[in-house]
Each structure stands twice: as structure tokens, then as C-alpha cells.
């Protein structure tokens, strides 16, 4: 969608490993994520529930600890600064300013007893201590108008706004300090379809006008097709495929990607009853797979071959800019 | 001035306390007014609460205005007119509400006593609500060792029997308004501390706290912004329940001699002094005790009604 102009890199993630601790030892929720993001580019992170998408998003914000996880290794670099290596105070200075996040559920992401405008002003003043209340209020009103919320709503409580309006307000909070990178966790999942389209359009306009990079966490391939330039597919914490959006849709090179694409509802007219394709089995949880490919038990091309059970397939380049972690990626059919 | 003004400000939202709320008057200020207004509306629909509020306001006016309006020198001792009944109800003396055992007009003494009682009650509740909430909330928010330290501190404050502690402090520092405020605050802090702790424990993992962190809010701002607002309703409700209890406690302490000391006065002290003459003239004890009872009952009923309004 948005053209990657001159591809200035705004964010680089290297070998990020995030773990939760449990009685049975550490559980790896994100196992070696690596990617970069260019200004104006949109990266989609897709995968089933429990594949580690949200954990990865939180770790990218430097907030893994706040959600009970721990970054084991790896780096998250913004403009050459590794956020994870910074002390917490300086890390806080980056959050909201360089990288901002819009949360999954706008209804619960605003404090129910505090006006939307005040929460917006709070964000503005967290990074601009010189701003007076009047200035912050002014900017809050402008931000709301920019995302399509009437400026008068600045004094309303979250419960007085609709879900779509709240999601817009959430985006206003995210863009309040002109961040270089915006992370949107399921930005439209809680909304109905017409509102979804509006929000996606809003994202597109904001990216075009601000040049920020966007990371969008979703399980909705509709959103991916609408908005995303590149796609990172996660399974059991691992990156199984990373490619531009056209390659993902037309020539997926990982059986999991192919299976996800097959299981999305289609609009083609079918005669008689048709069933939605599903991937057999349940997604592997973190720590459940000790050796081999985490997807092998549900894989339709493995056919029980030994290498799948013994060797964890590395992420290798299988096409131009396309990475896949499958021993038999050549056998994958869309 | 009244306890309702004091807490009415802090309603559900917008009191300025370093958090960037929209100040009252700025752009409609819907946060406080929508929730604050609906609470006020619910309160006004409750006849019991309104009646209690009217009674309390009358008591308050009496306690404030009478000492200001009576001419100077009216409160001097006058042995010739001791223990007269109220002339208002056809008693023998010249004073509207009778005289005490030293011949001072009872209407004035009781008003002063009431004022002391309400001052102490209000001060204690405000102090305990602020300090207690802050202690509990900070402990719970930081967690770990700080939390257990605060917990132990509160347990320690709690294990001392109230009266014994009061005795010890009063004998060490001497009676008086400040001492009694200190004594009564120690126990109240524990109560508000537990409330602050439990609310913070349940809401510190709320999505909106995580969101605030994601936008770069510092722990102090999360505590004084988000968590303070989240706790406000419960703290106000508890404060209103605590107020009459504190007023009664102060009266009890003063009654047994560990509280306010002469020449200052409080209701408890008046009752203690006048009860020696109860067989000659029961009116002073009845009047002072009645005022205290009416104050506490009206405060308790206001508290109940506000709690109901906050819940609706």
C-alpha cells in the first residue's frame, strides 16, 4: 500500500527471545524474532492465539516485564539505540515518544473514571514537560480531530464514546508524540466491519502523513491484505515465514502459512454446504516442542518424515526477500 | 468547611493533585460532572440522605455561628446562675439553652465542644485517607519487599489496643487537639491503607495501566493519576463511614480524660463534667449527648446514602 521510500530503517529487531517462567522452567513465548522496519512501512505479525504475537509486541515496547515475561536475549534498536539495554528511566523516555502502541481493546485501555482528553494530555505532558495545561489541551483537541473524533469529546469519559470512537482516540494517544514506530495490537478486532474499514483507512492516512513505521498484530488476513507491506508469520513463538504481502498470498512457502490462508472464509459462491477449512490439532504452546519442527504434528506435507522430528528447520531465504522455516518449503502449495 | 464540601471536591474525578485533569470549568469538565453529577442526583433522590444532610448542616451552622455571634464575655463563669434549665422551654434561667455547672451558657459551651469534635473528626479522616491510601497503594504498586514492609508496619500499628495506645501517647505528649488527632489517625491509617492496597493490587495490572506505561507514564504519575482516580469512590465512601466513628472515639477519649483538656472543650468533656450533677439537673448531659448523637447519626446516614449513590 504505502510505498517504501528510500527505505530508511527505523527499527531493527535481532534474535529476540522472550520467556515466561513457570514451575516447569522457562517457557519460550518468542523464540528468536528478527526483522527490520523501514519508515512508512507496515509489517503484519500474524499467527493463531497463543503464538506469541502479543508477547512480542510488548517486548518491542520494552514492556515484557510489565506483562510478567522476561527478555532472555536479543535487541530492539531504534535509530541505533538498543532500547532493551537502556535503564528503565531512559526506556520510559522512548515509550510513547519513539515507539507507541495502540492496544487490543480500547474499552479497557482507557481508565474508566478519567476523561479521554485528560488521558491524552497525560501522554503529551509525559514527554513534553514544558507544555502547559492549555497547550496540552489544545494539542489533545487537535489530535482528536485528526483521527476523526469531534474535539468536544475531549471532556467525555470512555464509557460515553462508542468502540470505534474509542479506538480512534486510542490511535490519537499513540500518535500524540509523533513516534517513529507505532505498534497496533489487533487494532480492529473488537470493532464491527464498517468501523474496521474506517480505522484501516485512518491508519493509511496517518502513515502517509507522518512517515512512521507500523507494526500491526492481527490474525485477520483481511487486515493484512488491506494495509500490510510485509508479513511475519509466527507459530509457537517462532518466525516461520517472513515475506512481502504478495508472496505470502500467492506463493506461501511454509505449510502453516498455506494452511492459515486456506482456513480463511471466502466469498466465492459455493453450491451446497461447504465447511470452513481448519488446521487439524491445536497450536503448540510454548515449551511443548523440545526438538524438531513445532508445526510437524499438524503439518500436511511432513508425512512423518524423520528430519521434521529431529531438526528444527532454520529460517532460510527461499525467494527474493522471502524467508521460510520449513525443510520442504518447495512442496508447499498455496 | 463541612465534610461534604471537603470530599465533594474529590468526587470520582477531577481534584487537582498533580495529575493533568481538566480543571473544573475548562471545557465542560464532563469527567467530574457526569459522574459527580449523577452521584449527586442519586443522593438527592434519597429522602433519608437529604434529611440527614439538612440536620447536619443545621448542626454545623450552630457549631460555627454561635461562638461567633454571642457577645464577648458571655462565656464567663457565673456561680449565681448554675445549672439552670433552658429559658427557651420555660426553665428558670436567662440563657436560652440553660447553663452548666459553672453558670456558663450551655448553648455556647456545647457549640464550642461540637466544633472541636468536628474539627478533630475531619482532620483525622482527611489525614488517614490521604496517608493511609498512599501507603497502601505505594506498597502494593511496588510490591515485593516494600509491600511486606508496609504490611508489617500496618500490622504493628494495628496490634496496639487503641485505648492503651491513646493512654501512652497522651501521657507522653499531654492531651490536646493535636495529640488526639495523632492518636486517632494511627488506627485510621491502617484501615485506609488496607483499602488502598487492595484496590491497587486489583487495578495495577489493568489494561489502562499497561497502556499508560506504554505511553511513557512514570510510576508516580500512574499512582497519582490513574490509581488515585480509580480508588476515589471507595475512599470517599469509607471516609464518610469513618467520620462519625472518629467523632465518637474522640468523645469517648475526652470523656475518660485522655482527650481534649480544659479550658478547651469537647462534647465528651462536657458530658463528663456535667454528669456529676445529673441528679440535680439532667439537661446539660442530655443536651450535649443529644447533639453528639444527632451529629453522628446524621453523618452515618449521609455516608450510607452517598455509598448507595456511588454504587448506582
Keywords:
heterodimer, A: alpha/beta, Rossmann fold, 11 helices, B: 312 residues, mainly alpha, MetI-like fold
Please provide a written account of the structure:
- The complex is a heterodimer of chains A (334) and B (312).
- Chain A is an alpha/beta fold and 334 residues long.
- Chain A has two domains: 9-235, P-loop containing nucleotide triphosphate hydrolases (Rossmann fold); 239-331, no CATH class.
- Helices cover 31% and strands 23% of the residues of chain A.
- Chain A has eleven helices and twelve strands.
- In chain A, the strands form two sheets. In chain A, strands 6-7-8-3-9-10-12-11 form an eight-stranded mixed β-sheet, sandwiched between helices.
- In chain A, helix 4 packs across helix 5 and helix 5 (133-146) crosses helix 6.
- The longest helix of chain A has 18 residues, at 193-210.
- Chain A is globular.
- The model of chain A is unreliable at 1-6 (pLDDT under 50).
- By secondary structure, chain B is an all-alpha fold.
- Chain B has a single domain, classed as MetI-like fold (Orthogonal Bundle).
- Helix content of chain B is 70%, strand content 0%.
- Chain B is built from eleven helices and no strands.
- In chain B, helix 4 (106-142) runs antiparallel to helix 9 (219-256), helix 8 crosses helix 9 and helix 10 (267-274) packs antiparallel against helix 11.
- The model of chain B is unreliable at 1-34 (pLDDT under 50).
- At the A-B interface, helix 2, helix 4, helix 5 and helix 6 of A face helix 2, helix 8 and helix 9 of B.
